[in-house]
Amino acid sequence: MKRIVVTVVGADRVGIIAGVTTGLAQQQINVLTVSQTIVDGIFNMVLMCDMDGAPHTLAEIQQAMGRVGETLGVEVRVQLADVFYAMHRI
Question: What is this structure's pTM?
Answer without folding.
Answer: 0.90
